Amino acid sequence: DVDIISIQFSVAKGTGCFWPWREPYVEFSRTILQSSNRKVGHNNWRFDDSLLRAHGCILGGEIHDTRWLWHHLQPDLPAGLQFIASFYGFPHPWKHLSDSDPEWYGICDVDALHYIYPRVADDLRTRGIWRGYEQHVLSLEPVLHQMSRRGMPVNADAHTKLGDALREELVEADAAMQQCVPPELTNCLPKLGY
After folding, report:
1. Distance separating the N- and C-terminal Cα atoms of the chain
2. Residue closest to 42 by CA, chosen among 71, 12, 13
3. CA 4 to CA 21: how far, in whole Å?
4. Taking the CA of residue 73 as centre, how many other CA atoms within 13 Å lie in the half-sphere pointing to its CB?
5. What residues contact residue 181 under an 8 Å CB cut-off, 6+ apart?
6. pLDDT tens, 2-22?
7. pTM for this entry
8. DSSP-derived 3-state class of residue 5
C-alpha cells in the first residue's frame, strides 16, 4: 500500500541512474529487475523487494541484502547503509540530502553498495563464515519470503493471552533480579556527589 516514488540502479562503482517511478521507466525497470544477474540492495529483503513485488515486479537472479551480510559479519554493530559504507571507503556522507537532493541521495545509495558488497563478502570469507551466510541467511530468505506471502493464521485470543502471560513473567523476573542487587549499588548518583 505504499507508492514507489523513484528507483535507482548502478552497474559499477562511481555510477548510478535515478528514475521517477512512471512510464516509460517502470517497464524498463521491471525488465532490469527480472533479469537473471545478481542484485544487491540494502534493507531490500524487508522493504524494497516486497514493495516492488506489490507493484508487479518479478525479481530475478540471486539477491543479496548488504544489511544482512553486515549483520552476519558484525551482529552487534548498527546496520545503516551510510554507517557501513564508512568502513569500506565511501568518500562522503549523503543521508542528510534525502529531502534537498533526492536524486544524488538515491544514486549514492546504490553506488555505496559497490564499496560494501565485495568487501563484506571478502571479510566473511576471510573469517570463514561465508558458508554460514549462504546456508543460513541467503538460502533462507526465499523461504521466509514465501512464508510471508502466504501468511499464517493466528488465534487472536491465544496471542493476547500469551502476551499477557509473558508480560507477567517479565515483571516477576525483573522483581527477582532486583533482589539480587545490593541497595548500595542501585544509587544513580555518586555517594559523595559530583
Report:
1. 53
2. 71
3. 6
4. 23
5. none
6. 899 999 999 999 999 999 999
7. 0.76
8. coil
Amino acid found at 188: C
Q: What is the pLDDT of residues 68-123, one digit of tens each?
A: 999 999 999 999 999 999 999 999 999 999 999 999 999 999 999 999 999 999 99
Grid cell listed for 184 = 548500595
Q: Which long-range contacts link 125-134 to residues 24+ away (Cβ below 8 Å)?
A: 127/73, 129/72, 129/73, 132/72, 133/68, 133/69, 133/72
Q: Dump pLDDT digits (tens) for 118-138.
A: 999 999 999 999 999 999 999
* CA proximity to 122, closest of 87, 173, 94: 87
pLDDT tens sequence across 161-192: 999 999 999 999 999 998 998 887 777 777 77
φ/ψ region of 21 (left if φ > 0, alpha if ψ in -120 to 50, else beta) reads beta
Which three cell numbers, joined as nine digits, stand for 9? Answer: 540502479
Instruction: Work out the burial of residue 159: count CB atoms within 10 Å of its CB; fewer than 13 is exposed, 13-18 middle, 19 or more buried.
Output: exposed
Report the C-alpha gap between 135 and 137 in whole angstroms.
6
